[in-house]
């Protein structure tokens, strides 16, 4: 038996006690396990190996014993195990119910005044690590009422980058859920993100990258996108992108520049965002910056994202196009003096003649974004009702070009189609029915007169 197994057995015995009487021994076991996990890779692997109950014992301890030295010590143990052993260990923690326990601990720790900074950093770091492994973490966070805890920590600790960074990582995980994005947007998270992102600066680039990713996820909600447009943030995003484009001459911060483009891409999903983008001269700016990026192969993601934004925001026109917008000119043979066609031809070149009605019902559908989520299992198969399964309907209908009566005039040219050929029985001198040979394959060869 190893030292780790012995310590875990002692910890399990402590958990079985209804009252914690020997706090000194419990503190000793906690510190020993933490020391082994920090110093020995063998211990970390042993706790997360197949068949090991180490993670379960620690989680049950955190759930039962809510004393501070227990919480901080074992959160530190989980932090070292997950951060050092990779994503597979995070999946183990999720399957053991660790997400729910960590969220409950976060709610309990937030009630302290002031909250323990070290504990908050460890909790948020763990949640950010296991969040992508748990597809229901957004729902769990909302049910447990911890959405605004991370947001409030960022609001009151903007200068404390050590605490803000893991909190932003957790907010990024929460924002992938549309209902959470709307709820966070109502509490001012969009305005908060624009306080963090800013002009070119080599300081805290990792914080800038996480903030941009979080903002891009938040702006996918139409409610948050409209809020950003109303406050003039589209112009701010374009200005930030141009600033980074000018100063990043060595292209070391391509991911940050792409993050700004992702925010612009999200906000232009609505009609107001596209209009604000065009009014801010965004088409010309993205076109010019993309031309400058074409020579560098590593900047292809920036060119591709810029192209998607420009294609989305470019005014739409019907064919034929009589203006300079098209490389081809389709002239109608006859243009009436009045009517809708004449009106289209009389429009000035810069007018969008296709009415964009994509967001006309957004005001009525604002609250519909906050709806009950249906969490389907991964192995659930969805039936496509658009696929036709009736074979008779799939067969093309063959219609004759002429009637049967008209085709009878050709019978004399094709007697084999209408004559009843029968084989004569030489013994009975009577015709016998024709029975095709089942083994006969290939074309039937008719003997010539010489062969007969």
State the helix count. Answer: 23
Largest sheet: 2 strands, antiparallel
CATH superfamily annotation of the domain at 191-317: Leucine-rich Repeat Variant
- Class by helix and strand content? mainly alpha
Which CATH class of the domain at 191-317? Mainly Alpha
Please report the distance between the alpha carbons of the first and last residues: 100 Å
At CATH level 2, the architecture of the domain at 191-317 is Alpha Horseshoe
Q: Strand tally, please?
A: 2
H/E element sequence = HHHHHHHHHHHHHHHHHHHHHHHEE
Average pLDDT for all residues = 77
- The helix content is 55-70%
Strand order of the largest sheet: 1-2
| pLDDT < 50 runs, ≥5 residues | 362-386, 438-447
The CATH topology label of the domain at 191-317 is Leucine-rich Repeat Variant
Task: Report what the structure shows.
The chain has 452 residues and is an all-alpha fold. Among the domains are: 1-15 and 23-96; 191-317, Alpha Horseshoe (Leucine-rich Repeat Variant), CATH 1.25.10.10. The protein is 56% helix and 1% strand. The chain has a two-stranded antiparallel ribbon. Helix 13 (189-196) runs antiparallel to helix 14 (205-218) and helix 14 (205-218) runs parallel beside helix 17 (254-267). It is flat. This is CBPC1 carboxypeptidase. Keywords: Carboxypeptidase, Hydrolase, Protease. One of its GO terms (molecular function) is carboxypeptidase activity. Residues 432-452 are annotated as: Disordered.
């Amino acid at each position: 038996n190893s030292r780790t197994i012995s310590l875990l057995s002692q910890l399990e015995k402590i958990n079985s006690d209804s009252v914690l009487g020997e706090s000194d021994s419990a503190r000793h076991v906690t510190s020993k396990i933490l020391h082994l996990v920090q110093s020995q890779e063998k211990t970390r692997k042993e706790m997360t190996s197949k068949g090991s109950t180490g993670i379960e014992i620690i989680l049950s301890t955190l759930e039962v014993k809510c004393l501070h030295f227990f919480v901080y010590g074992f959160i530190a143990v989980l932090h070292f195990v997950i951060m050092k052993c990779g994503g597979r260990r995070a999946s183990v923690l999720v399957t053991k119910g660790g997400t729910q326990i960590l969220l409950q601990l976060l709610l309990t720790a937030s009630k302290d005044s002031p909250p323990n900074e070290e504990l908050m950093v460890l909790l948020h770091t763990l949640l950010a690590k296991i969040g992508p492994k748990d597809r229901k973490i957004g729902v769990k966070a909302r049910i447990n009422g911890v959405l605004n805890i991370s947001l409030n920590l960022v609001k009151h600790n903007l200068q404390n980058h050590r605490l803000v960074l893991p909190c932003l990582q957790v907010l990024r995980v929460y924002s992938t859920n549309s209902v959470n994005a709307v709820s966070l947007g109502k509490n001012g998270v969009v305005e908060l993100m624009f306080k963090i992102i800013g002009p070119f600066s080599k300081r805290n680039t990792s914080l800038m990258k996480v903030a941009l990713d979080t903002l891009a996820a938040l702006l996918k909600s139409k409610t948050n996108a409209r809020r950003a447009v109303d406050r003039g943030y589209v112009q701010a995003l374009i200005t930030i992108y141009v600033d980074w484009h000018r100063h990043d001459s060595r292209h070391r911060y391509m991911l940050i520049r792409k993050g700004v483009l992702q925010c612009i891409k999200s906000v232009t999903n609505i009609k107001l965002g596209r209009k604000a983008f065009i009014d801010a001269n965004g088409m010309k700016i993205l076109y010019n910056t993309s031309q400058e990026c074409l020579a560098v192969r590593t900047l292809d993601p920036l060119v591709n994202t810029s192209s998607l934004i420009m294609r989305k925001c470019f005014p739409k026109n019907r064919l034929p196009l009589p203006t300079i917008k098209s490389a081809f000119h389709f002239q109608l043979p006859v243009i009436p003096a009045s009517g809708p066609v004449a009106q289209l031809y009389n429009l000035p070149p810069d007018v969008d003649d296709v009415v964009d009605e994509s967001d006309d019902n957004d005001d009525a559908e604002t609250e519909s974004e906050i709806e009950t989520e249906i969490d389907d299992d991964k192995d659930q198969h969805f039936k496509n009702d658009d696929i036709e399964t009736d074979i008779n309907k799939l067969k093309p209908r063959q219609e004759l070009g002429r009637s049967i009566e008209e085709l009878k005039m050709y019978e004399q040219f094709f007697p084999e189609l209408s004559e009843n050929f029968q084989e004569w029985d030489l013994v009975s001198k009577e015709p016998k029915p024709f029975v095709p040979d089942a083994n006969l394959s290939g074309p039937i060869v008719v003997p010539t007169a010489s062969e007969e």
